[in-house]
Amino acid sequence: MADDKKLTPRAEDFSAWYNEVVLRAELADYSPVRGCMVIRPDGYGIWERMQRALDDMFKATGHRNAYFPLFIPESFLHKEAQHVEGFAPETAVVTHGGGKALEEPLVVRPTSETIIYAMFAKWVQSYRDLPLLINQWANVVRWEMRTRLFLRTLEFLWQEGHTAHATHDEAEEEARRMLGVYRDFMEGWMAMPVVTGRKTESEKFAGALRTYSCEAMMQDNKALQAGTSHNLGQNFARAFDLTFQTESGGTEYAWNTSWGVSTRLIGGLVMTHGDDKGLRIPPLLAPTEVVIVPIWRSDEERARVFEAAERIARSLGDWERREPNRLRVRLDLRETLKPGAKYYEWEMRGVPVRVELGPRDLEKNQAVLVRRDTGAKQPASLDTIGEDVEALLESIQDAMLTEARARREAHSVRGAITYDRFREIMDGEGAFVYAGWCGNAACEAAIKEETKATIRVLPDEEFRSAEPPTHCLKCNQPATSEALWAKAY
Length: 489
Ligand SMILES: [Zn+2]
Prior knowledge:
Blueprint: H1 14-24, E1 28-30, E2 37-39, H2 41-60, E3 64-65, E4 71-73, H3 74-77, H4 81-87, E5 92-97, E6 100-108, H5 113-123, E7 132-141, E8 155-165, H6 168-188, E9 195-198, E10 210-217, E11 223-233, H7 235-239, E12 243-245, E13 251-253, E14 255-262, H8 264-273, E15 290-294, H9 299-316, E16 329-331, H10 339-349, E17 353-357, H11 359-363, E18 366-371, E19 377-381, H12 385-410, E20 412-413, H13 419-427, E21 432-437, H14 441-451, E22 454-459, E23 481-486
Parallel strand pairs: 3-7, 15-16, 15-17, 20-21
Antiparallel strand pairs: 1-2, 4-6, 5-6, 7-8, 8-14, 9-10, 9-22, 10-11, 11-14, 12-13, 17-18, 18-19, 21-23, 22-23
Helix pairs in contact: 2-6
The structure holds zinc ion (ZN).
Zinc ion (ZN) binds next to loops.
């Protein structure tokens, strides 16, 4: 760690705090290409764990992985009118290859609906070929003007699920199912609670029939769109002639869904859990779950403490060998740093549990366990330290979700609210505001223009208020639905 200067406090400048944590916890770095980022091993380690968990969940719901090319013929993007309108402004286009102008320019994929449904059209003949359930892990490129590490970069890593079904209802069920998978992952693994619901017409994916989203609250009370799932209807099937023979012998267009989450989730994790000491990583996703820091003064003490620390590390799990079902443990034997400096560094990196071990602890046959989430310390007998650490990691995982959920609820506003009060909230510290909406896009656009807040979702039933709002926040006409408003990343 090059820099031991204190972080900018979150309350002072959340955005500066975020950049400092990402850089100093060594999750990512700026690249020589403007707007791109380098994901460093500690950041990539989180992504690998996210990938593994999600991949298992996708496979458990019947999906298989495949890979489609990075380059898409430019004409493909033009086949679905809304899709090209949505994505054309931010595409990168290759016009030359091998020193020659290409006959047809190639778009570097901003998303892969077009090329994947063109292939599905070749593979699907009859209703017996459906459903077709595919996922791809890949990088995509969107030429963004204003970029932020992990949150918005020119190139990012993601997964995109693409499916084809025989009926609207099956596609709808799939889109909803995958939204649920995302929610389970975000809450169960990331300890990041989300509100799920449907996007309005103006916020839906370019080319979709309906878009569903998981929206998480960051510590500056802004929303992060953490994952989306789309029922694409028959729009892409029509554009790419993706038809199938029905059971009764007719011909029909297939119904598609697509759904994705990206390395943006790492930014969400930082902004949900980080504190003024740095990162806090939920144990299930932490590349290192436990760090052991030996404490000594004399050479004689050092020999004893190192020996015991190595014994504990071996009993918990060997970080280097990565044995399955063992803990991910690191042993910090550096002799050039004082314990305090090591604590500071591992706190910055967000390691969930620190084990402190000194000569006096050894005399008592114990070590001290320190939680990263609360800073609380507890002694653990060296005879039972394995079980104690495992139990502690589990309770940290749960406590982090509880804390994040309580934080979100404390900054959610429900019930009758005037537009003036709403503006005051959005100009001030922000919130998730649940309010009525008449369904008119003009009201939605006016509020966005005046306050920068948008309808994040029309929330699913379990998130709606017990007393539904009766009037539109903006025009005061009768409300047709409850909307979740917030400023967003
Ligand atoms: Zn209205």
